[in-house]
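Hi everyone, sorry if this is the wrong subforum. Our group has a chain we'd like a structural model of before ordering constructs, and none of us has done structure prediction before. Sequence below.
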Amino acid sequence: EFTIYDKELKEARGKLGKLGDDRESKQDGNTQLHSKMEDLAKKIQDEQRLQAEIRTKMQTYKDDIEHLTSETQTSHTLRTKLELEIQDLKAERESGSKRVDEMREKLAGIVDQIETTETKLRDTILPRYEELCHREQSTNERLATADQQRKELYARTGRGRRFDSQKERDDWLKREITKLDSSVKDKNEQIDKLQKGLHDDKSRQHEMEKYMDDLNVKMDTIKQETEKLNKEYYELKRGKDEKANERNAMWREENAIQQGTSNTKDELSRMEQRLRSLTGKAVLNGIDSVQRVLQIFQDSNKPELRKIVQGYKGTLIENFSSDDKFFTCVEVTAGSRLFHHIVDSDATGTKVLQEMNKHKMPGEVTFMPLNKLDTYEQVEVEQQHRSDAIPMINKLVFDDRIGKAFHHVFGKTLICRNMEVATQFS
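Answer:
Right subforum, don't worry. Here is the predicted structure as tokens:
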């Protein structure tokens, strides 16, 4: 019997050793698979992030293409308009050139006629004209001399025959003198009127000169203002162009931000779906109901209700952070407790729950009142084993004021390097 039991014991030990080896190999395989899964998850996240960036860039490029297409169409329209104007100007220039050629031909004919006429005038007509002018002058001089002689003869013979006595002659002379005096007076009046008109004309001339000077000053002022306005116009136009460029840059930046926001919303939606698959609809509805209750308390004017809002600290998952490589450890340790609600006291949780029931709000909620939680003594690791195992609580970052909740959940958990170390500590 001993031999049989010994043989069975050896076989059992052999099988146990073999199972241990298989377990270690499978454990190593599981560790490698887990590492590969983490690497693949990171690669998937990187690829999704890269796809989001590519979509953002593609949308930005698409918007730039549309903007450039619009500018190109505008440029083509302007170019076509300028080409038509250039064609019109060329046609006008060609027609103007034809008219210029015709006018030059007519001018050449007229110049030839002028030269012919000047030659004829210089050779034939001018000598004849000068001869006739000389003859006319001589004839006029003889005529004037003869007329003067005739008048003197009439005067000598007429005076004696015209008047019968000296008194009649004197009376005629007086009448003539009176007529001459009246004529002189009229002439003087005309002279005075002409002098007054001349004076008035000089005054008006002076006024007009002054008015012209004022107009010149105004023209210079207007010219300076026009130059100033033109300068301001070009400055404003340049500023407008700069603002247009800034607007286009801001427009592209806005499109990129909108695309990034859209990608973030998509990623948030995927995360929410994943969260719902992990937690369940009832838990998420409970979180939404608690937020609505807190909003009701916040909007009220009662200090005791606002104090309840201050006593609510949020869910456990909202109050700490850790390294990415510890996410799996945290999730496995806490489980659904990640979505438990931390409150300062059980009274605060009771008030929130009563308000939810009062308004018949959906969802499931679990409160962690800090005044009622049991805190476990933190697991300590000896110095020689600290390279293989660490307390999970040491890898979490949280507010010490709500530290009791984290010690309650994570205080008795160690993060071990492998299964053997975990078995030793357990």
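For your construct planning: The first strand starts at residue 312 and ends at 315. The mean pLDDT is 79.
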